[in-house]
Amino acid sequence: MSGQKCSCPWDLQDRYAQDKSVVNKMQQKYWETKQAFIKATGKKEDEHVVASDADLDAKLELFHSIQRTCLDLSKAIVLYQKRICFLSQEENELGKFLRSQGFQDKTRAGKMMQATGKALCFSSQQRLALRNPLCRFHQEVETFRHRAISDTWLTVNRMEQCRTEYRGALLWMKDVSQELDPDLYKQMEKFRKEERRQALEAKMGN
Fold first, then answer.
1. Distance (Å, rounded) from C-alpha 14 to C-alpha 139?
2. Is the pTM of this model over 0.70?
3. Choosing a second label site near 177 at 20 to 30 A (CA), which of 53, 107, 126, 202?
């Protein structure tokens, strides 16, 4: 009838291929999610797979150690700067006080207080001079953190995503292999060996 459309064989084949592709993607996503769940919960993974990534995991641990160390160093520099400013201010105040008291005291003790006060004021100025190199050092650490470490962190995240997909595929393959009939597999192997033997004999006969 004119109202009905005829489905051609290649249309059915294309539709079957599309449906199969969707199913494969869903299966792949399932096994990737399962692998991510295993990693997040800390469940035991295949020891051979883990052993194959031992060198990579050691390098990742080194990277995370550098990441933590840089953050701790940045915080320590900031805290050290605050302590230097506070100590310098207190030292300067004490030096001024001793010098003022020393001017009022005309004895030898007064001269000693003036000398001590002068030394303390000079020391406070020298201590403040440490701030400039510390600021430069802090800027270099922060630049390293926000550029080198951040860029490496993005690469690590992409690598971890690929590793999750890879291990998910391994789980999928393991699940499929467990469903295979070992007797059928042996028969297929015998058939392949016999096929190779006959091909070799035919080649030698020619």
1. 60
2. no
3. 53
